[in-house]
Design goal:
The complex is a heterodimer of chains A (about 230) and B (about 675).
Chain A: H1 2-18, H2 38-67, H3 90-96, H4 98-125, H5 132-162, H6 175-178, H7 181-184, H8 194-222
Chain B: H1 8-32, H2 39-72, E1 83-88, E2 95-100, E3 110-117, E4 123-125, E5 136-139, E6 149-158, E7 161-164, E8 168-171, E9 182-191, E10 194-202, E11 216-224, E12 231-236, E13 240-243, E14 251-260, E15 272-275, H3 280-307, H4 309-316, H5 330-335, H6 338-345, H7 357-362, H8 381-392, H9 402-405, H10 407-430, H11 432-439, H12 452-457, H13 473-489, H14 502-507, H15 533-547, E16 568-573, E17 579-583, E18 606-609, E19 615-617, H16 664-667
Antiparallel strand pairs in B: 1-2, 2-5, 3-4, 3-6, 6-7, 6-8, 9-10, 10-13, 11-12, 11-14, 14-15, 16-17, 18-19
Helix pairs in contact in B: 1-2, 8-10, 10-11, 10-15
The chains are: A mainly alpha (about 230), B alpha+beta (about 675).
Subcellular location (chain B): Membrane
Pfam family, one (chain B): EpoR_lig-bind
Keywords (chain B): Disulfide bond, Glycoprotein, Membrane, Metal-binding, Receptor, Repeat, Signal, Transmembrane, Transmembrane helix, Zinc
């Protein structure tokens, strides 16, 4: 019996010692970590934003298909991010510069965190719609993505600053500062009907496209390579 | 907001009034000039008249036109509803919208495109109607805003009215359809002897991918010139692609197209042709493969053929069937070893029990013993008689008289047999004792055709006549059994190869006993009820049996009849005129003590023949006979059948039947030496 326990202990020790250690997450760029290069970060971020846009686009088209078959809506909704000035064409975007562009991206991302969460909650609570379960999962997904992307872009900005590509004018932007809560009162707190869902999705679809595009511009101006 | 069209009626009025006014003006002018010229006045007048007439005509025509149109009714109408077909942007910086005009209502119709931007109420008209062609509106860079919703409407205007199209909302970002890729270059390259195609291209020059403003993904399609199916390849964002697995010597077409992340696919680029050079080793390998495959198939076929050669041969050249003896393997005879043959014959399951008695009966040997042949032992006359008799009875109804029918043979053999008989008789006496001891069983089964005569008279003993002669029911069974014996030994076909050499017979007499209990199809002859008829029979049978060549005839039993066979001795004849036979044994019936039966115990004394042509055999009143009570009933002992017991004289292992009869089958067992 004693031997058995000895053996067990030895095995446990061995296992612990031989366990493959996972590389620590290098959030702060510690020494000894394998930090991804700026190009890698850019790739990841752009991939993420592209995926986010794809999902939001799908959701929006689903909504349009099921709930608003007639394409002619009375009026296009006014998005709560209309306050954020975004360049509307290439020249303006190029004229803006990297720092401002990064800032715009961050602002946009910050403005969408809460509304998406609310959208998800509202969609999951709504029992009437059959397809809502599938859609609410998507809503949750994009909600998470927005948060992750925001963090990623922030890291990217940091890295750019470190490598001297980005000026120091870009400061940390708090989510509250991005969008005044008044503008968010567009949407009723708590209960959102399907119309609101549709509007939200419409707006987010566009904004995610903007984010993606700005990131691509940023990448190609910072790191001109094969992809650009 | 929109300028109204001038009504045609007003214009008409205007024109009429202008005509009138012009006419009056002219009139006034001309009037002033007529003072100096009286002759020209008339000319002037004429001219004036003509002009006026023209004008009047025009007015009249116009009026007519109006009247006509009004009389016909709705020939003109306001324009039909136009529709915006599509709007496209090639590079996400400009865009164009096309519309489809409705019916023009018969009148010249003008179209105008008006748009409104999102979050603005200002209506703008299309800046450029020409650049993009007919029924189009081109928005240049200054007028294009991305991520802004445009509300576009087309208005058709004609003399009678205006018609608005349905408004369309577009966002430029979602209507991007780039131009096809440019500078598509296709080259053939080689990789370790195997060629491949490298396709490279450039994005359309208008699309700005360099700044990252637009991101394109590409797609390539390839096909052989003569085929219809394209092979698609998605290339992603790269601008170069390799295509492998090409056909040697083939001519390929390559096309490329592109698409932004969320947008429309461009048109295919113009085809680029490329010819792949012939590469020999690939074709060669194909031929090698084919050759190997064929060889393999060939080998398999050959092997199959070899395996099935026998059956194939049988199929193509079926073998000639040979004679068959029931239960007897002719291979034994072919081998030439009589021992085996003997043993086979006296096997316990021999003769095979056939359920068909009729078959056996056919084989029945009919023996006819004429009266003259009382002393058949010394004489060989019986054969002649038999021969004669046989001849005489050509018309017998018996079915199986094969050998009897062959008269010529009969005659011939009859002569031959006589001489032999005498010789053999002497021999028989000499070897009497030997015979006893040896109890030889000779396979003088002369079933051969030349011995058909012998067969006529052979087997005087045991074997019962045909059932039709039988009055005794019991006997039939026994007879049947005997039939079996006979059958097995002497099948109807006279080509039995039973015939072993006499020499063999002698020497191998000790071998497995066997019996020539064979009967041929013989007509039952009337046997003379002689006291020694049986002997005669036996003698005859001996003769016959051994005539072919039974030199040895250790048959010391019968002098004339070289007793080469064992016989079943007729023990007695019961009340029902049945001959009871017993095996030839030393004990059974004192051989020595019977002068009448020099053959000893093998023979049964025939008492007489009754009216029904039945052979009445004398019963042996001996004590010893009980031991070997091999009595088999023979009703018509026309068929002297001799059941040879190899060891019978010595031992009396007889199976006593229920009725005192003996199953000759068991009687004729192999000698146990």
């Amino acid at each position: 019996m004693a031997r058995f326990w000895c053996a067990v202990l030895i095995l446990a020790c061995l296992e612990l010692s031989t366990r493959v250690g996972t590389a620590p997450i290098c959030s702060y760029g510690q020494a000894g970590c394998h930090t991804p290069s700026l190009a890698d970060i850019f790739d990841r971020v752009i991939q993420q934003s592209s995926r986010m846009h794809g999902i939001s686009s799908d959701l929006h088209s689903e909504f349009e298909q099921y709930f608003f078959p007639s394409k002619n809506l009375i009026g296009k909704p006014k998005c709560h991010t209309h306050g954020i000035v975004t360049p509307a064409d290439k020249e303006n975007a190029q004229r803006l510069g990297r720092e401002q562009l990064t800032e715009v991206i961050l602002r946009l991302l910050g403005a969408w965190g809460d509304p998406l969460l609310q959208l998800y909650r509202s969609m999951s609570q709504d029992q009437n719609q059959d397809f809502n379960h599938y859609s609410s999962n998507k809503a949750l997904e994009i909600s998470d993505m927005v948060h992750e992307l925001r963090d990623g872009v922030a890291k990217m900005a940091e890295k750019m600053k470190l490598s001297g590509v980005l000026g120091n004018t870009v400061g940390y932007i708090s989510p509250e500062g991005l969008v005044p809560s008044s503008s968010f009162s567009f949407y009723k707190h708590g209960e959102l009907n399907s119309m609101d869902h549709h509007d939200l999705l419409y707006c987010f679809r566009r904004d995610s496209n903007k984010i993606k595009n700005y990131l691509q511009i940023l990448k190609c101006t910072t790191l001109p390579g094969l992809d650009c | 907001m929109y300028p109204g069209p001038t009504s045609p009626v007003n214009r008409l009025h205007k024109s009429v009034s202008s005509v009138r006014s012009s006419g009056s003006r002219q009139w006034t002018q001309h009037g002033q000039n007529t003072e100096g010229e009286t002759e020209s006045f008339c000319q002037l007048k004429a001219r004036l008249c003509g002009a006026t007439m023209k004008k009047v005509l025009e007015v009249i025509l116009l009026l007519l036109l109006l009247v006509v149109t009004h009389a016909k009714g709705t020939r003109y109408s306001p324009p039909g509803k136009p529709a915006l077909t599509r709007c496209r942007s090639p590079e996400k910086e400009t865009f164009t919208c096309w519309w489809e005009p409705g019916s023009d209502g018969g009148l010249p119709t003008t179209y105008a495109l008006y748009y409104r931007k999102e979050s603005s109420d200002t209506v703008f008209e299309c800046p450029d109607y020409r650049t993009a062609g007919e029924n189009s509106c081109f928005f240049n860079k200054n007028d294009t805003s991305i991520w802004v919703n445009y509300n576009i409407t087309v208005v058709a205007t004609n003399a009678l009215g205006r018609t608005f199209s349905d408004p369309v909302d577009i966002d430029v970002v979602y209507i991007v359809k780039p131009n096809p890729p440019e500078q598509v270059a296709v080259t053939v390259m080689e990789d370790k002897g195997w060629p491949f195609i490298r396709v490279s291209w450039e994005p359309p020059h208008k699309a700005d991918t360099r700044s990252g403003w637009i991101t394109l993904i590409y797609e390539i399609r390839v096909k052989l010139e003569e085929e219809n199916d394209w092979e698609m390849h998605l290339a992603g964002q790269q601008k170069m692609f390799n295509i492998f697995s090409l056909r040697s010597g083939g001519k390929y077409l390559v096309q490329v197209r592109c698409k932004p992340d969320h947008g429309y696919w461009s048109e295919w680029s113009p085809s680029s042709y490329v010819k792949v050079p012939d590469y020999f080793h690939r074709e060669k390998s194909v031929w090698i493969l084919i050759t190997v495959f064929c060889a393999f198939i060939f080998l398999i076929l050959t092997w199959l053929l070899h395996m099935n050669s026998r059956s194939l041969k049988h199929f193509l050249l079926p073998p000639v069937p040979g004679p068959k003896i029931k239960g007897f393997d002719k291979q034994l005879l072919k081998n030439g070893k009589s021992e085996e043959v003997f043993s086979a014959l006296v096997a316990t399951d021999f003769p095979p029990k056939s359920s068909n008695y009729e078959d056996l009966l056919v084989e029945y040997l009919e023996v006819y013993i004429p009266e003259e042949q009382e002393l058949m032992l010394e004489k060989s006359m019986d054969l002649d008689v038999g021969c004669l008799k046989c001849e005489g009875s050509a018309s017998d109804s018996d079915s199986g008289r094969g050998s009897c029918d062959s008269h010529t043979l009969l005659m011939h053999k009859c002569d031959g047999v006589k001489e032999e008989e005498e010789r053999q008789a002497k021999e028989a006496r000499r070897h009497q004792k030997d015979w006893k001891e040896e109890a030889s069983t000779y396979a003088h089964v002369d079933v051969s055709p030349d011995m058909s005569s012998g067969r006529v008279k052979t087997w005087p003993s045991v074997f019962s006549p045909l059932p039709r002669y039988t009055s005794n029911q019991q006997g039939s069974l026994e007879m049947a059994k005997q039939h079996y014996l006979s059958d097995s030994l002497f099948p109807t076909s006279s080509t039995s190869s039973y015939h072993t050499q006499p020499g063999h017979g002698t020497t191998e007499a000790h071998g497995p006993g066997y019996w020539e209990c064979g009967l041929s199809n013989k007509q039952p002859h009337l046997l003379h009820p002689q006291a020694q008829a049986q002997r005669q029979l036996q003698a005859r049978s001996d003769d016959n049996i051994s005539s072919i060549g039974r030199k040895q005839t250790p048959a010391g039993l019968h002098s004339p009849a070289r007793r080469s066979t064992e016989y079943v001795e007729v023990e007695r004849v019961n009340e029902e005129d049945m001959v009871l036979l017993q095996p030839v044994s030393g004990r059974c019936g004192d051989v020595e003590g019977y002068p009448e039966m020099p053959y000893g115990e093998d023979y049964s004394k025939v008492k007489g023949v009754d009216m029904d042509n039945m052979l009445l055999l004398q019963r042996e009143v001996r004590e010893e006979t009980e031991n070997c009570d091999t009595s088999s009933t023979v009703t018509t002992t026309q068929k002297p059948a001799a059941c040879i017991h190899s060891a019978m004289p010595v031992e009396g292992e007889m199976v006593l039947g229920v009725n005192g009869y003996v199953d000759t089958a068991t009687v004729c067992t192999p000698p146990t030496y």
